[in-house]
Amino acid sequence: MPELNREQWENFLQRYPQAHLLQTAAWGELKAAFGWQPVRIAVHSGSSQPVGAQVLLRRLPLGFTIAYLPKGPINSSNLATQPDWPALWAEIDQICRLHKAVLLLAEPDAWGNEDPPAYTDLRFQPALQGIQPRRTIVVDLSGSEEDLLERMKQKTRYNIRLAVKKDVSVHLSADLEVFSRMLEVTGQRDNFGVHTPDYYQRAYELFHPAGACELLLAEYDGQPLAGLLVFAYGARAWYFYGASTDLHRERMPAYLLQWEAMRWARQRGCTEYDLWGVPDEDEAALEAGFMQRSDGLWGVYRFKRGFGGELRRSAAPLERVYRPGLHRLYRLWARRGGNVG
Counting CB atoms within 10 angstroms of each CB, which of 143, 154, 254, 300 has the fewest? Predict the structure, then answer.
C-alpha cells in the first residue's frame, strides 16, 4: 500500500507547487487535531507521472467513516506523460474500504462545471453538498500595486486610503488570543459559526514556521480593530479567516487589512488571492441582491466584490459510494442540514 508519512508527503509535494493548500501535510495535521485522520497516498507506475491524494477520514458511529478528498488529487501540468488515475483510485478505494467508509466526498481543485480529467469515466455521482464554499472571488495580484488598486472599485480604493488617513495601522502579530476574541464578536454579530481558539492557534503553529501563514491585525491608537489569517502555497494565497470588533468601524480597518494581506501575498510571490466564499449565485443575481440581503455569505459579498477580483465557481463536489444503504441515511441527514466539516 503506497501510503506516505508526513515527511514523505511533504517531499512528494515539492514537485507540485500548484497543489492546493488543503492538500498540504500541515492541513492534514490541523484536521487531525480536530477529529479527522489524514491518509496520504501516491502512485507512480511505469512511465506515467506520479499522482497522489491526501484523504481525510472522519469516524461515524459503529466504526464507519466518511472519507473526504479536499481539492485534489494532485498531479503536474506536464502533458508529456499521462497520470495513472486508475491506479490511484484503486489505492484510494482500498483505503476507504479498509476504514469502512460509507462514501468518499471529493472536491476537485478545478474551476467550472465539467468533471476534471482525474474524475472522468469513474464511478462518481454528484454530491448533495460539499464542505468548502463553491463560489468565490479571486483577485489577480499581477502588475504594480497601482495596477492592483486601479482594478478595485472606486469606493474600496477610497476606504483603503481613508483607513491610512485616519491613522489605522496594520502589523504582523502572533496574538491568536486577541484574534479569537474578535472572531467571537464577529460570529455573534454576523450570525456564523467559528472554531474554538485552539483551532486558529494550531493552524498558525503549523503553517507560520514555513512562511505559509500570517496573522495581520489592524489597530488604531494601540487598540485592535480587525484581524485576518492569510495562507499561501505556491502562487496562490487564501483569505480563510477574518474578524473585526464593533469599534471604530468608520475608520475602515478591514479594507486596509485586506490590502496589506494582498501586499504580503505579492511579496511572497503569489499571483492570485482567493477571498474564499461568496453566495453560490451567478453574477447577475449577486449584483441584483447584495444591497438587500445580509444573510449567510451575502453579508461579505458587498465587501469582497470591491477588491476587483473575478467571480469563479469551482467544479462540482462528487461522491463515490461504498455502502449504499448507509449512504441513503447520510443523504437524508445532509438534507436536514448536517455537515461533516
Answer: 154
Calculate ∠ Cα 77-83-85, nearest 5°: 125
* Cα–Cα distance for residue pair 125/321, rounded to 1 Å: 8
| Helix (H) or strand (E) segment spanning residue 302 | helix 298-304
Tell me, yes or no, whether 306 and 322 share the same domain: no
Distances (CA, A) of 303 to 41, 85, 294, 306: 39, 40, 11, 6
Are both 288 and 259 inside the same structural domain? yes
pLDDT (tens digit, 9 = 90+) per residue, 178-215? 999 999 998 888 778 889 999 999 999 999 999 999 99
Domain residues for 40? 3-132+315-335
Burial class for 246, CB neighbours closer than 10 Å (0-12, 13-18, 19+): exposed
Rounded to whole angstroms, how far apart are CA atoms 62 and 212?
Answer: 38
pLDDT tens figures, 7-59 = 999 999 998 999 999 999 999 999 999 999 999 999 987 767 889 999 999 99
Task: Tell me the whole-structure pTM to 2 decimals.
Answer: 0.94
Query: Is the same domain home to 156 and 16?
Result: no
